[in-house]
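Reopening this one. Same input as before:
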Amino acid sequence: MFKNNLKHYHFIISITLLTLITFSTSTVIFAEGDESGAINERYKNELSLQPVAPAFNVESLLKWSPNDDPDAKLNQSSISLNKERFKGHQVNPLANHDVGITSAAITTIDHDLSSSVGSNDFNVYAFDNWQLLESYIYWPGAPNKEGVFALPSPDIVDAAHRNGVPVYASIGFPWGPGSPETLAEIEDFTQQAEDGSFPVAEKMIEIAQYYGFDGYFFNQETSGVNKETATQMNEMMRYLKRNSDLNINWYDSQANDGTISYQNAVNEINDMYVERAEDGAYAVDEFFLNYNWGINEIDTTVSTMNKHDHSPYNAYAGFELQQNSYNTKINTDALLNDQDQSKVSIALYTPNSTMGMADNPADFHNKENYLWTGPQGDPSLANDSEDWKGMARFATDSSVIQSKPFTSNFNSGHGKKYYANGKEVSSQEWNNRSIQDIMPTWRWWIRGEGSNLNSEYDFEKAYNGGNSLKFTGDLEANSENDIMLYSTDLSIKNSTKIRLVYQNKPGADVSLGVAYNEDYSKEDMTYYPLPDNKKNWETIELDLGEDAGKTAYAVSLNIKNTDEIDDYSINLGQISLYDEESPIAVLEDAKVEEKMLKTADEAEARLSWTPKEDVQHYEVYQENAQGDDKLLGVTPNNHFYTPNITRTEENASSDNITTLKVVPVNETFERGKTATTNFDWGLDIDATEYDQNPPSPNVALNANVTDVSFENTTEPASNALDGLSSTKWAATDEQEGYITIDMGEEKTIRRWRVEHAESGGEEKNMNTVDFELLYKTENGEWTSAERITDNEDAITDIVLDEPVTSSEFKLQIHNSGSSPWEAIRINEWQLFESEKTPKTENLMMHFASAKNNEGANDEVTIENVEKDQVVRLYKSLETKDVLAEKKAKEDDEAVTFENLDLGDEAGRIYYTIQTPGADESLRYSAGYLSENLTVADLQLALHHLDLKRELSGSDTLHALKTHLTAIEHYVEQGKKDKTLNHLNGFKTLLDHQLENDLISGEALKSLKAYTDEVIKNYKEIL
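Same output, byte for byte:
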C-alpha cells in the first residue's frame, strides 16, 4: 500500500521477510501470475508435499476447483468464526467502545513458498492480541508471483476465528502505471454477465466459503482505470454484499473516477464506495484511510460517513508501522474528540514489524505488549503521556468466553519444544497458529499494592503446547497482585468447576479470583485458595456450585504475601471452566494419503482420518521400534502434513515400518482413543549415505555486535548473526556500511559465508556488489582478510587463501547493490573454523530409477539434474570406484546411463550429484528388480493359475485384474507410490480370500507367495 507524501514515493518494494522493512514506502507488488498453472509448484514438481496458501490471478481463480487443488483440504479453516464475541466493562476511560482496529500484517515469510499449516520454526508472527482487533487483513510477505489474489493460510484463520475475529484475503493490483495486461485483467475482474451476475464475484464467494475466510481487502493502485470500470468495481462489491455474508475492506487509493488519488480521508472524491444503492446495499464495510491524515481529513471523514448512513467507526485511520514499529511518530491527537476518545477506527499496516525489534522469538511478545497495551504495560493505564499510545488506549477489549467448556493452556502457537500434560513430547522448534489458545484478555492488568510482579510467556516450561504464563519478582512485605486474566460472561451452575494447573514457589497465599460484578469490582470478587504445589505440575479443581445462579464476569489469579519474598515465581499451565468433562473421542481410522522420502531416514507425509465431534485438535505421533513416541505435529484439521518423520539405525524396525498414531484431544484436553496407521519406508536405512564429517559450526552465530554503521529499527545488525535466513540486517538509503563483532575468544577462520538479498527472495540487483572481511590484529588494527568485488550471487561461500585468527571481525560493505533503491541487505554473515564446505544437495530418490534388463542392457536415469552438474554411479555405499559418470548439458535434464550390467539379482545402485565448485553429494540409491522377476509375471501367473473355476465372474477376480492393469500403467509412467499401492491392494485381496477360506487350492497360495516376493522387491525399489 502506497503513501503519497513520502521521500521515495516511486519505490516499489520487493518484500521478503516478516520484518522486512527496507524502504520508505508501503507498496507490495501483486503480480499478474507466473503462468505455471500450478497452485503449488513444489508439489507439482515433486519437490515437497508441503502445502502453501492459495494465490490466483483472475484466470486461474475462475478455473479453480478443489478437485484440482492438491492442498485444498489442508488449507480449509477448521474453526468457525466465533460469533459470541462481546465487549465487557471498559477498563480504560480513554478507550472508545465503538472504535475498531484492523491489522494488515505480513503473516508468513513468503506466501508462495511458506508452509500454510505451520513449520519447524519458533520464529513466526504469532500474533495473539485478538481481544483488541476487529478484523485481520492477510497481507502476503514476498511479492505474490501467482497473481492478484492472496488467500489467508488456515492457521491464521483458525486462530482469529477462535477469538471471534474475521480474516480477509488480499486483492492487490500493482502500484504504478497499468500495463495493457494489468488493465485488461482489471476489466476481466469487473466483467458482468448478461444475467447481471459477476463471474469473478461468484467465484470469490465460492472460494471464501470453501476455505472458510470472511472477506476481501481491495488494494487497487494501478493507474489507468477509467470511471466506467471503477463504477463496475463498486457494483461488483455491492453484488458480493448482496449475495454473501462476506466483508469488504477498501484501501484509500482509487477515486470515484478511477484515478489513483490518495485522499487520506473519505470525502466527495472517493465516497462512491460507501454510498448506498436504492436497495440500501453498499460496497465497503471498512474504509482503510491512507496515512497522511490530519484533523481536517478526520472531520471530513466523519461527516461523509454520517452523510451516507455509515458509522464513522467504519472508517479506519491508517498507521504505517513498516519501518519503525511503535517508534513511529503518529499524530493521534488529530483523532480525538472533546472527550479525548477517537472519532474513527484505526488500521495498522505491517504491525508485524515488532519481530524486527525483538531479541528473539520469546521477546517478540514483550514488544507486542508495548505496541498493543502501551508503554505503561497495563491496558487500564494506557494514556497519552508517551509518543506511542498503545492500542488499549483507543479500543475496548473483547472476549468470546460465553460458553463452557472453556480451556486454555496459554499456548501462543509456537515454541522451542512441545509438551503434552507437562511431558516433553518433541524437542523440535515449531509453530502452528491453528492451535493457539485464547490468551489472557489483559496483558497485563494487575491490581493491588506493594511490589508488582513481572509477567511473561515462559517457553522453557509448558503444560500443553509451547509455553506457560510466568509471574516473577521480589515481593516486599504485605504486597498483593491481583492478576486479571480473562473477561468472561459465564453462567454458574451447581455443576460448574474450575481446574487450574500451576507451579509456584511457597511463601505467598495464592487464590483464584472470580468477579461476580460486571465492573470487576474487588468487593464482588470471590477468591478460592490454592495450595502450594507439591509436584512438577499441581492440578486443583475448584467447585463453584455455591455461587450457582451468578454470572462470572472475569477470572484472576491473586497473590498475597505477609513476609518479604525474594525471587518469587508462579507458572500457570492450564485453566479450564466446565460443567462436565467433554466426551472422550474414539478415533478409528487413519491413513497415509501421500509420502515422500527425502532420505532413508527422513520423510514427509500427508495423512487423513474421519473427523470427530467435540475434538479440539489431534496430536500425531510416530512410534519407533523401541516403543518411544515422538510428536510429529498437532492440527484441528482431519487432514495433516508433516515433514518430521524420521528414524535412525538404532530405532528403525526390521520391517522398515514406522507406526503413526493420531490422538484426539477434546475441549477439556483429555486424550481419546488413538488411531494407528503404518508408514512403510519401503527400503532399508542404508539406502542413503550419512555425513560422518559435516562442516564445522558457524562461530559467528549470535556473536556480540560491537558496532554498526547504521541499522533500521526493525532490522538490526544482530539479524545477520541469528542463524535465520528469514531475518536480515538492513540499512535504508545506505550504499556503504559495516558490522563489527566480538566473539569473546580467538577463533581461526578458514571460511566465510554471506547471504545477500536474493537469498531472501528479493531482486538480484539488490545483492551486495562489493564487500570485505576484516579482522583485528593484536595491535588493534583492522586488516583485510579478503575483499569480493563485482558480486552478483545470492550467496557467497568462500574459503580463505590463508586462515586468520582473531576474536573481532568486521563485515565492510563498499557497495550494497546496483538497485536504484539502495540499501544494505545482509540476511546472514557466517564464519567457520574449517574450510570444509557443505556437500552438493542430492536429488531425492524418487527422481532416480533403474531397470534391470536382460544382460548388459540395464539403465539408470536421474531426473531434474541442473546444467553442468556431474552425476556418478556407484555399486555400493563403500566402494570408491565410479561405475559411470555424466555431466548434464541442460537444466532439469534427465541423465540416463545405458548398457550397464547390474547383475541378475535385485539390488540398489548408488548415485551422487556434484555442482561445480562444491563437494560431491552424499550417496543416495535407486532399487531394481532381478532380471527374472517383473510385474508382468503377475499378470501371466493370474492368467495360467486355475482361478477361473473359483473366481470366474466374481468381484474378486475383477478387482485383481484391475489392480494388475493399474500396476502396469503406473510402472510405465514411473509412478512409484501408486505402483506400490496397487501391489499392496492386490496382496490384501489375496490375504482376505485365504484368511476367510473363500478360496482353496495350492495355486492361490502359490500366487500369494509369488506376490509377496514381488512386493518385497518392489518396496526396495520404491
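So the earlier flakiness isn't reproducible anymore. For the record, The chain is about 15% helix and 30% strand.
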